[in-house]
Amino acid sequence: MKKWMLGLLLTVVSIFALSACGDEGDKKADANTSGSEDGYESTTIRLAYNLPQDHHIAVGIENFAKEVVKRSDGKVNVQVYPAGQLLSDKDMNQSILSGGVEMGVNSSTLWSSTVPAMGVFDVPYMFNDYSAVGEAVNGEFGDKLRGAMEEKGAKVLMFADYGYVQFANNKRKLTKPEDFKGLKIRSIGDLPSELIQAYGASPVFMGGGEVYMALQRNTVDGATSGTTAMLQRKYDEVTKYLTVNNYAYLEFLLAVNKDYWDKLPAKTQDLLTEVAAETETWIREQAEKEDTESAKALEEKGMDVYYVPEEELDVWKEAAAPVRDVFIENAGDLGKELLDLIDKK
Asked: What pLDDT is recorded for position 129?
């Protein structure tokens, strides 16, 4: 009799235990369903950039951040630190790679010190028009660069078109390479420095935020930059002459620390990728418009603007030819592969 009662008791306990497990499983299933519908785990992403806030890339990046927050109902919180508030352009890359900041925007030129192949955008006269750049970065050319960056620890989320790069100075009109002789020109990286030397001037490397004061104090005679940044950084106040020769097409990269990226939920990764692609398209559409309008605005503000005639560009290209060899030496096989892809276009 006691054995029978003990067996009955054990059966009842088992039924209740199974029932409780079923309820708990239902709760977990409901929670998982709710999570997939709700979508996003809470996270905060710090995003730094060093461009002026009214630059078209900066406007695009600010909108990118707002859109990510909006579409995630605030769960993916992108905190933006603009205009060098958190990091200078010279400190940006190391901070991204080390995880000091999760996400940042910096030029392809400055990334070339980490991934030499990124210097391809500084190879003189590689890209003849705006559409050619978009086709390149969205194809095999861009995939090779993205792969090289990931090997170093940074995922490229976006190629942001800065536009063509020009020369400004306060000494004389630059109508041919020989006119550079004896000038001190602010450079933005290794290959631009090689070009400045090939043209007979002395390169001086410095960050974008330092240039105005350097020009004002005659620490340098001129600088290379895009006309959008020249306008926003008020180059017209400290330089007289602008030469438009479209010698290089500068890209900025929105990059993410790779370890951080790999730990993000797939849904968050998809959101960031989607909004970045939309933003990249918008920024690319602005580049040509901004280049044209900013050069015109600088002229209206008193700068003497010289547009190198197309029939005279061969002289500039010939003088710049050694820079291509330097790039291949620095970037190796990958660099040559990238040049071959562009040359086939």
From this structure: 86
pLDDT digit string (tens) for 48-83?
Answer: 999 989 899 999 999 999 999 999 999 999 999 999
Calculate the average pLDDT of the chain: 90
Residue with tokens 């170093």: 152
Helix H or strand E encompassing 86? none
For residue 168, give every residue at least 6 positions away whose Cβ sits within 8 Å of its Cβ, in sequence order, or none.
222, 223, 224, 225, 230, 235, 239, 241, 242, 243, 303
**HSE-CB for 244 with a 13 A CA cutoff:** 19
Q: How many helices (H) and strands (E) does the chain have?
A: 12, 9
CA distance 209 to 295: 20
CA dihedral 3, 9, 12, 17 (to 10 degrees): -110
Query: Distance between CA 103 and CA 321 in Å, rounded?
Result: 35
Say how far apart CA 26 and CA 31 lie, in whole Å: 8
- Of 121 and 2, the structure prediction assigns the larger pLDDT to 121
Tokens 């071959």 belong to which residue?
Answer: 340
Sign of the C-alpha dihedral computed for residues 232, 245, 160 and 253 taken in this order:
negative
Strands in 175-236 per DSSP E? 184-187, 202-205, 222-225
| pLDDT of 6 over the 50 cut | no
- Collapse the DSSP code of 220 into the 3-class scheme (helix H, G, I; strand E, B; otherwise coil) and give the result: coil
Tokens for 292?
């044209």
Burial group, residue 180, by CB count within 10 angstroms (0-12, 13-18, 19+): buried
Q: How far is CA 7 from CA 18, 21, 133, 240, 253, in A?
A: 17, 21, 78, 100, 70
pLDDT digits (tens, 9 = 90+) for 294-326: 999 999 999 999 999 999 999 999 999 999 999
Give the pLDDT confidence of 118-164 residue by residue, as tens digits. Answer: 999 999 999 988 889 999 999 999 999 999 999 999 999 999 999 99
